[in-house]
Write a structure and sequence with these properties.
Largest sheet of chain B: 6 strands, mixed
Largest interface: A-B, 21 and 22 residues
Structural class of chain B: mainly beta
Shape of chain A: globular
Radius of gyration of chain A: 13 Å
Number of helices of chain A: 0
Largest sheet of chain A: 7 strands, mixed
Order of helices and strands of chain B: EEEEEEEEEEE
Oligomer: heterodimer
Helix content of chain B: under 10%
Number of strands of chain B: 11
Structural class of chain A: mainly beta
Helix content of chain A: under 10%
Distance between the termini of chain A: 34 Å
Distance between the termini of chain B: 37 Å
Radius of gyration of chain B: 13 Å
């Protein structure tokens, strides 16, 4: 009964490839997020969706495209991967935008 | 001034010690405050919310000082298992949380 799940857990790929990460939450929350945590461990918001609508897009290159097919899912597609995209990507959800957030286990992306 | 600032540490303390972390924030309009714990190679996990009146959960006490714009986390009787990175999170007017960079705690036997 995992609350927030992500797949895959690890992703190793070549520069220039396109990849997707999937996220699902079974908490009934209305808001979902994508974060990037780099090697310096800083957890930085990328996107936020509320009821399937994009509400936050934090200066992320347009190679990154989130998609929310329904309130329980928020996927992240990345085009033309670059070395600097290597990081851990966390999905999270919350009941409303400024309430406590619950994180998925993360996807460790390595771009070679 | 950064939106949220934490002392990165590391804080190296012996078992049984009391340790306190502070987190300062710049937006006086922030309404929600949280402490998270992140273990190595794991996701952040909610430790506790921080209420205006302060709150306690076992060995952990969180406080909010709106006048000076900081929140604090006090851990009493530290255990080896408390070793982790502690992140503060503060709400933004855009409708999300912003996280501090975290304070690393290492509890030694």
């Amino acid at each position: 009964d995992t609350a927030v799940s992500q797949t895959p857990k690890y992703l190793v790929t070549q520069m220039g490839n396109d990849k997707s990460i999937k996220c699902e939450q079974n908490l009934g929350h209305d808001t979902m997020y994508w974060y990037k945590q780099d090697s310096k461990k800083f957890l930085k918001i990328m996107f936020s969706y509320n009821n399937k609508e994009l509400i936050i897009n934090e200066t992320v290159p347009n190679r990154f495209s989130p998609k929310s097919p329904d309130k329980a899912h928020l996927n992240l597609h990345i085009n033309s991967l670059e070395l600097g995209d290597s990081a851990v990507y966390f999905c999270a959800s919350s009941p409303i935008p400024v309430s406590e957030q619950f994180f998925g286990p993360g996807t460790r992306l390595t771009v070679l | 001034r950064k939106e949220v600032e934490q002392d990165p540490g590391p804080f190296n303390v012996p078992e049984g010690a009391t340790v306190a972390f502070n987190c300062t924030y710049s937006n006086s309009a922030s309404q929600s405050f949280f402490w998270y714990r992140q273990d190595c190679r794991k996701e952040p996990k909610l430790l506790m919310s921080v209420y205006s009146s302060g709150n306690e959960d076992g060995r952990f006490t969180a406080q909010l000082n709106r006048a000076s714009q900081y929140i604090s986390l006090l851990i009493r009787d530290s255990k080896l298992s408390d070793s982790a990175t502690y992140l503060c999170a503060v709400s933004r007017s855009q409708g999300n949380l912003i996280f501090g960079k975290g304070t690393k705690l290492s509890v030694k036997p």
